[in-house]
From TrEMBL, chain A:
Organism: Natronogracilivirga saccharolytica
Keywords of this entry: Membrane, Transmembrane, Transmembrane helix
Membrane spanning residue stretches: 80-97, 104-125, 164-185
Protein name: Uncharacterized protein
TrEMBL record, chain B:
UniProt xrefs under PROSITE patterns: PROKAR_LIPOPROTEIN
Protein's organism: Natronogracilivirga saccharolytica
Any GO MF annotation of the entry: nitrous-oxide reductase activity
Lineage per the UniProt record: Bacteria, Pseudomonadati, Balneolota, Balneolia, Balneolales
NCBIfam families: nitrous_NosZ_Gp
Name of this protein: Sec-dependent nitrous-oxide reductase
Keywords of the record: Copper, Membrane, Metal-binding, Oxidoreductase, Transmembrane, Transmembrane helix
Enzyme Commission code: 1.7.2.4
Keyword 4Fe-4S: no
Subcellular location: Cell envelope
Coiled coil feature spans: none
Gene3D superfamilies in UniProt: Cupredoxins - blue copper proteins (2.60.40.420), YVTN repeat-like/Quinoprotein amine dehydrogenase (2.130.10.10)
Enzyme class: oxidoreductase
Superkingdom, taxonomy of origin: Bacteria
Length: 194, 656
């Protein structure tokens, strides 16, 4: 690969580092009595409240409809994602260092697979919360199901959930764009015979 | 002499009748006009919008402090201070009971008159509010992050703390004074007619810790047996001084309405507190025995703790020259108010026909020139002519209390003629007057007691409402009137009933407090010895007759909610911890047959209420605060068995 492409891949590796320091997703719940909303951030390795006690307060609201408690320690994916990201950083760095096109394309493939798997896992996590409701809950949701949105807005009873990507997703997207951009630049350069 | 007094009295009454008739029959249409116009728009704060000012109104005989918004006149909160409050459990819960302890035992009620915001450079800093107890003399401190009373301090050698609370420039001291002179020894059993011989006056200087706000009785000054009415600290050039008014310099002890109204002049007391403090540090004060309580909420546990003190430092002006002077002031002055520049000292001679204005700089000159009429108990009396710079003529009948707009004007409340007069600090002439409804006591201008007033609003605190609102029987609430003072003429905007009897008020721009207000108590920082922070730790323990229920509250259940094995004759302590951490998510607790009150528990807080079951049976308890949709389900049962029962002590929630 040429210098520019390798630089692109190196940059792609660097862009994944801030993902550890900013949430990748944000879910905000608004209700009449929560005009400013309460909410949570999803990090690569954790789930935290927008404010210090938001997770506890969301759990208190959720328990009325029989949702399980949100407990980051009980979400196995959160143990895996950091390693996946670390692996992608290493792979991009290795591809940049060696200039191996083969490694670079593997990086792109793994990146896309992990992304899709992550989104699917996120959807399933929401599905579990929304469908696995305690039958003894005080408030019965019609049909006993609720699908929290992966992206967008959804209303359950008086609470509207707003789910949107956060800064971390921006870094992930930029990383993918920079890395694949580098690869395509390499192809174009090769075709032009430079 | 007697004849002269009688003539004066008669003419006062006649003048009164004259003015009252002018008020009652003179141009009603003009009054009507002032009351209408666009006033509604000017006080309207739309739903969801905030007021510009917090106003704190003393509760008077309710012993509390109420919090209002200006200009809307909406009440936000009634803070219990000196009286038990069954609504919140204040003064009933084990955590708050010590705040009402005094050397006279547990005092469930008092009369709170003058709130004072803590000051930095003579401007309110929004940290604390102080307020006095007039009956069993005390001063309380309210924390303005939680709006809760956190400290009370008793004043020894004091027969009613009326001239309080007023703060010095940087809240170095909160001042107090005895309203009624009494014998210093609290148990001294003497004939009342030995008044002049055995009774003494006192001024109190309560130190305030700049970091924590903690109060201490730093020292007192021995005074002649007069009555001390109101006070104020100086500012700017006069910041080292505090001022008090006196009445009953006649030293009467019976039928004071006649006997204490005899002299043409009583005094304003000027005290150089910096000098007094120095004398005390030098060791010139005597340590005298005095029993008094100091009660404070422990920062760590949030449980109030009482400490009893047994002595106080007493400074005798005879041993401390040049620190205290009397300024003769007409007729039993009430207010003593210092203008924003710190130069003018305005007396409110409630029986006087003029408003006397002293000059601080002239006072200093008079002291330099030894312009003394006489010396009483080591206190020089300055010549009236040497300090006075103006007498406002025709102020109406019964001028009481004055505040300022920072624009060269003073506003004096006038009780008997029910009006507020605005007068010029240059010409000492009345420039405007407006009615109050009815019988105004104090008034309050936004920042009107500071070096930098906001010439915006004035609140008149009136004593009777009579025909102003829909009637509610022979007893009605005391009203307040809001005036716009931003223009040349005073305009009345609003007339609203208040809580208790507000004697004085303080206002502060809302943003100085709003952003510091706590939304919850941090459960992690809750170090109450009987707190339970997790439902799993909830339990019941017996130690002899004392049963401790460690109970958690969270939407929408108590843990435990079924308790058995309680016996008649037990002393049951319900230690309730609200483990919520969500703003305004308050739970309450009440049990059938309780002899005390309910208790409200803020998020993250632990509160204890003691219950003495008197008979066997099943006793329901429930959450009194509508906390959630399933609030009505937030309840439980205690089973009480005979004293000799063998029913074991058990507790549970959610088990069949
Ligand atoms: Cu409740």
């Amino acid at each position: 690969m040429n210098r520019t492409s390798r630089l692109g891949l190196f940059l792609a590796a660097l862009l994944l580092i801030p993902v550890f320091f900013t949430p990748i997703w944000s879910i905000t719940l608004t209700a009449p009595q929560y005009p400013d909303g309460i909410g949570m951030y999803i990090w690569v390795n954790d789930i935290t409240g927008h404010e210090r006690h938001d997770i506890q307060n969301i759990n208190i609201l959720n328990h009325y409809v029989g949702m399980q408690e949100i407990d980051p320690d009980q979400v196995p994916t959160l143990d895996i994602i950091p390693w996946v990201i670390a692996g992608l950083i290493a792979l991009a760095a290795a591809a940049a260092a060696t200039g191996s096109r083969w490694l670079a394309w593997i990086w792109v493939a793994l990146f896309i697979i992990s992304g899709v798997a992550g989104m699917y896992d996120f959807y399933m996590w929401g599905y579990e919360y929304g469908h696995n409701l305690d039958p003894r809950a005080a408030i019965k949701v019609p049909d006993m199901t609720y699908q929290p949105p992966v992206i967008g807005r959804e209303t359950l009873l008086n609470i509207t959930a707003h789910s949107w990507p956060y800064w971390g997703t921006l870094w992930v997207t930029l990383s993918l764009l920079t890395g694949t951009g580098g690869l395509f630049w390499d192809r174009i350069a090769k075709k032009k015979g430079r | 002499m007697i004849q002269k007094t009688t003539i004066w009295k008669v003419s006062t009454v006649l003048l009164g009748i004259g003015l009252v008739s002018v008020l009652m029959y003179g141009c009603p249409s003009q009054t009507e006009m002032l009351d209408t116009g666009d006033a509604a728009q000017r006080v309207y704060v739309a739903p969801g919008e905030y007021d510009e000012y917090y106003a704190f109104l003393s509760g008077g005989y309710s012993g509390q402090l109420s919090v209002w918004g200006l200009p809307s006149g909406r009440m936000f909160r009634n803070i219990p201070v000196f009286s038990q409050d069954p609504e919140s459990g204040y003064g009933y819960s084990e955590e708050t009971k010590p705040l009402l302890m005094t050397s006279y035992g547990f005092i469930p009620w008092d009369d709170s008159h003058h709130p004072e915001l803590s000051l930095t450079n003579s401007m309110p800093d929004g940290r604390w509010m102080f307020i006095n107890a007039n009956n069993t003399p005390r001063v309380a401190r309210i924390d303005l992050t939680s709006f809760e009373t956190v400290e009370t301090l008793e004043l020894p050698n004091t027969g009613g703390n009326h001239a309080s609370t007023f703060a010095t420039e940087n809240t170095e001291y909160i001042i107090g004074a005895t309203r009624f002179s009494i014998p210093y020894d609290m148990d001294m059993d003497v004939p009342i007619d030995t008044y002049s011989e055995n009774f003494d006056g006192s001024l109190s200087f309560i130190g305030v810790d700049d970091e924590t706000g903690e109060m201490s009785m730093d020292f007192q000054i021995l005074m002649p047996p007069y009555h001390y009415d109101l006070g104020r600290a100086g500012k700017g050039p006069s910041a080292d001084w505090v001022f008090f008014t006196t009445y009953n310099t006649e030293e009467a002890h019976t039928l004071l309405e006649i006997n204490a109204s005899e002299f043409d002049k009583d005094y304003i007391v000027a005290v150089n507190w910096k000098m007094a403090e120095e004398y005390v540090r030098e060791g010139r004060a005597e340590t005298v025995p005095a029993e008094y309580y100091h009660n404070m909420k422990d920062e760590n546990t949030s449980v109030a703790v009482s400490n009893v003190h047994d002595e106080v430092l007493l400074l005798d002006p005879r041993d401390a020259p040049d620190m205290i002077y009397f300024l003769p002031t007409p007729k039993s002055p009430h207010g003593v108010d210092i203008d924003p520049t710190g130069e003018y000292i305005v007396g409110g001679g409630k029986l006087a026909t003029v408003i006397p204005v002293h000059s601080f700089s002239r006072m200093l000159d008079a002291i330099d020139n030894d312009a003394f009429e006489e010396i009483i108990n080591g206190i020089p009396v300055l010549e009236y002519e040497s300090t006075i710079v103006g007498e406002v003529e025709n102020p109406g009948l019964g001028p009481l209390h004055t505040e300022f707009d920072g624009d060269g004007h003073a506003y004096t409340s006038v009780y008997i003629s029910s009006e507020i007069v605005k007068w010029s600090l240059e010409t000492f002439e009345v420039v405007d007057r407006i009615d109050s409804y009815y019988s105004i006591g104090h008034l309050m201008i936004t920042g009107g007691d500071t070096p930098n007033p906001d010439k915006r609003y004035m609140l008149g605190l009136t004593k009777t409402s009579r025909d102003r609102f829909l009637p509610t029987g022979p007893k009605q609430l005391h009203p307040a009137q809001l005036y716009d003072i931003s223009g040349d003429r005073m305009e009345m905007l609003l007339d609203f009933p208040t809580i208790g009897e507000p004697h004085y008020a303080q206002a502060i721009p809302a943003d100085q407090i709003r952003d510091n207000v706590k939304q919850i108590y941090d459960l992690d920082a809750n170090n109450h010895p009987h707190a339970v922070k997790r439902t799993a730790d909830a339990r019941v323990e017996r130690d002899g007759d004392v049963v401790r229920v460690y109970m958690t509250n969270i939407r929408s259940h108590f843990t435990p909610d079924n308790i058995e094995g309680i016996r008649v004759g037990d002393e049951v302590h319900f230690h309730l911890t609200n483990i919520e951490q969500d703003w305004d998510m308050v739970h309450g607790f009440a049990i059938k047959g309780s002899n005390s009150a309910e208790v409200l528990i803020a998020p993250g807080e632990t509160k204890t209420i003691v219950w003495h079951p008197q008979r066997t049976g099943i006793f329901p308890f429930y959450c009194t605060a509508f906390c959630s949709a399933l609030h009505q389900e937030m309840q439980g049962y205690v089973r009480v068995s005979p004293a000799d029962t063998d029913v074991p002590l058990t507790w549970r929630t959610g088990e069949d």
